[in-house]
Amino acid sequence: MTGPASPYGLHRVLRPEGALPQAAEVLDTRRELWPSEVRVDVERLNLDAASYRQMHAQHGGDGAAIRDEVLAIVRSRGKMHNPVTGSGGMLVGTVDEVGPESPLGLKPGQRVSTLVSLTLTPLVIEDGLAEWDGRSEQVPCRGYAILFARSVAAEIAAGLSTELSLAVMDVCGAAALTARVVRTHAARSGAPPTVAVIGGAGKSGSLSLAAARDVGAGRTIGVVPVPDEAELLEASGLADAVVLADARDPVAVSEAVATAGGPADVTVVCVDVAGCEGGAILSTRDGGTVVFFSMATSFSAAALTAEGLAADLTMLVGNGYVPGHAGYAVDLVRRFSGVRSLLERRLRTGPISEAG
Question: Do 120 and 259 sit in the same domain of this protein?
């Protein structure tokens, strides 16, 4: 392809004109590259937890119907962008071709994880998802995807299986952002903070707990919804205290965190269900910080709830990107055996859910 190409992918937007790729209704998925682009042969998708949960609920767990919906979304939009949740996921594949002006530093033959959302990645599925039964967030897939000059990708880490690498890369921003926030709070207050993670037994939750411990949290609290999740998190050793509460019940969450040593100085929300904003706000002391790392979050609900409760908090949107986030997450998996064992167990037993 010739002609100017936007580093943000604007040249791939078919409609509406002027939209960024993430907000676009339809993307151009032509195989031919602009000089600054990279084409990746896809081997596996990882659907965003909120997106998969929504489709699973909509279709009553019917794997064939879920598969058909994913195919229909990608076919109609040129990307995996769930119109209900607004979320997508990420992918693993092998670099096929690199445009001569690409700044990403990738080479043909490298196996990589993309660290940008499928909601803005041009994607073509060529095998009809024939190897996927629709019962897992991880989707074996044959096709190709296009990366822009401002996309982000990381080579698959040595010593990690494809499945584990995909699970870690999908949420690697949570660990890096949690570490940054905990460090900042400790520097400001002069004391090791108490950190609560709602949905602590999920992918992003377990990595966030590991990150909090790694940078010197004074106490870590994991909030989970059911005894099986509590058992899993307790076995990992990532939380000083594990408590049971439905993340959608604000009073129950705040009381559970309080019994475990709260309120928290930093609360990280890692769940894939709606209605968790109030519990996080009530669980956090004045002057503290809440990090919403979930595509199910209603940011208007969070803002209005905090206002209505006269809560003096800093609330952050976890956007999934922090410089160095991929390497840091992989390092945590290698140094904290509890994270690796928890994720590997969940990979063996079924879909990894961020439900809290």
Answer: no
